[in-house]
Amino acid sequence: MDFAEIEVDQKYHKHIIGKSGANVGRIKDETGVSIRIPPDNENSNIIRIEGSPEGVATAKQELQQMVYKMVGQITFVFGFNFEISNCHVLLISGVFITVC
């Protein structure tokens, strides 16, 4: 028996779980692991995976890939004014881009 814990921002937990538990259920079925995602009232970012070493490694990798894809799809846009012109700073996949 093995386990792993990964830290995932709680705002992504519902996406990892999926509609009616579809995403997490599929991973559990395919890998034979148990996955504990803390409920919202725990205010915890730690997801715990337990099972065979191979299953834990596979499930951990799949969960991390899911989070990576979700984070890559999010764009933060915020603006501010310079003295001369209006500019916006975009943060896209970890890269700042200034648009004036």
Can you tell me the CATH class?
A: Alpha Beta
Care to count the β-strands?
6
- Helix proportion range: 25-40%
Mean pLDDT, as a whole number? Answer: 80
Number of alpha- plus pi-helical segments: 3
How does CATH name the architecture?
Answer: 2-Layer Sandwich
Cα Rg: 18 Å
Description:
There is one protein chain. The chain has 3 helices and 6 strands. It has 100 residues and is of the alpha+beta class. The chain has a single domain, classed as Ribosomal Protein S8, Chain: A, domain 1, CATH 3.30.1370.10. The strands form 2 sheets. It has a 3-stranded antiparallel sheet, covered by helices on one side. The chain has a 3-stranded antiparallel sheet with strand order 4-5-6, with no helix packed on it. β4 and β5 form a beta hairpin. The chain is globular.
Would you summarize the structure shown here?
The protein has 100 residues and is of the alpha+beta class.
Layout: helices, strands, pairs:
Blueprint: E1 2-7, H1 13-17, H2 22-31, E2 34-36, E3 46-51, H3 53-72, E4 75-81, E5 86-92, E6 95-99
Antiparallel strand pairs: 1-3, 2-3, 4-5, 5-6
Helix pairs in contact: 2-3
Q: Can you give keywords for this protein?
A:
100 residues, alpha+beta, Ribosomal Protein S8, Chain: A, domain 1, 3-stranded antiparallel beta sheet, 35% helix
